[in-house]
Design a protein that fits this description.
This protein is α/β, with parallel strands linked by helices. It contains 14 helices and ten strands. Strands 1, 2, 3, 4, 5, 6, 7, 8, 9 and 10 form a ten-stranded parallel β-sheet that branches.
Amino acid sequence: MDLLTTLVDKGLRRELPTREEALAVLATSDDDLLDVVAAAGKVRRHWFGRRVKLNYLVNLKSGLCPEDCSYCSQRLGSTTGILKYTWLKPDEASKAAAAGLAGGAKRVCLVASGRGPTDRDVDRVAGTIKAIKDQNEGVEVCACLGLLSDGQAERLREAGADAYNHNLNTSEATYGDITTTHTYEDRVDTVQKAHAAGLSACSGLIAGMGESDTDLVDVVFSLRDLDPDSVPVNFLIPVEGTPLAKEWNLTPQRCLRILAMVRFVCPDAEVRIAGGREVHLRSMQPLALNLANSIFLGDYLTTEGQAGQADLDMIADAGFEVEGSDQVTLPEHRVAGGGCGASSSSPGACGTEAGSCASDAATPEPRTDLVTVRRRGAGTDLAPNA
C-alpha cells in the first residue's frame, strides 16, 4: 500500500502525517491489518528496538472524587462498588510499588483521585516519592494527581518526581460530552505546567467512548502538539455503574489500528498500552507489542489486569525483551531536548480536515465477564498482582 510506505518513510524522519493519512489508517480493512501492523512496527523498532518498558500503578487514594468524568469508576456519585480509601501512607505506597518493581517494572506511577492536589497533598506525595526512591535505586516515578496549580509541578520535580501524567482523553470538540466539572483547556494547561517545570510530560487518550475517527485523530494531533515523552493509549473499560458502561465499541482489530495511528503520528514517543488491553485486545495483545513499546504490569487503578507473569511470558513469547533499569527509554534526540513534535513539517502543513470514517467491523458483544473490580493490592491486606 502506498499509504503505508509513505507513513513508514515519514515515521523514520519524525515527519508529521497528514490528517487524511491518519484517518486512512483507521479506515483500513481487516484484510490489510497485518500490513498496517508490520508498517507501524518498522517505525517502532527503528526508535525503540524490541524493548518493552514496564510500568506499575499505585493508587494512592481510591474513589471519593468530586469530578464527573463519565468513563471513570471513581467519579462523583459512582455506584460501581470499587475499593474506596483515603491516602496511603508513604510506607504503604512504597511496599505496593516494590511488588511491581520486583516484577520488572522500571517506572512507578503514583495516582490519586480528585480534581487536583492541595499543597498538603503535594507534601504527602513528596514523602511517598522519597520513600520509594530511598528503597529502590534508579526507579522512575511519575505522579498523576489531577489538575495542577501554579508552582506544584516545580515542587513535585524538587521532590524527585521524574514525570507527570495528565491525559487529554478525547478531542476538544467532544470533551464537554464526557466531563462537565473541568474543561479540555484545564487539562492542556496542566500538561504545559508539567513540561515547563522540567518534568517528563505523559499524556494520552481513551478510545472506545463513542468517539468518531475524526475525534481520535484530533486528540492524537493535539497530543503531538503538546509533545509529551509518553503517550498512554487507554481502551475504555466499561465498568457497570458508570455512564459509559454500555459502550462496547471496540474490537481487537480496531484497537490495533488505533495504536498504529498513534505510532505514525508520534513515532519517537513512548507509546504505552494502558487500561483495557486485556478486555479489548484479548488474545491479540502480543501483536500490539509491535506498535507500542510500553505497557502497565499487573492491575489498574480500580480493575484487575492479567497476571504479571502472563505479561512477562507474553513479551518473551512475542520475541521482545523487558527494558532494563540501565537502559534509556527515549531516543537520544528526545533526551537531549528534541521531541515528537520536532519534524520537518510545520503544523500548517498537516493537510485538510476529513470527515469521520466508519469502522468496517460490527459492534461487538459486550464482554462484561472480562471486567473485574480490583480487590487486592493497594488499600487492602491482599498481595498485589505484579
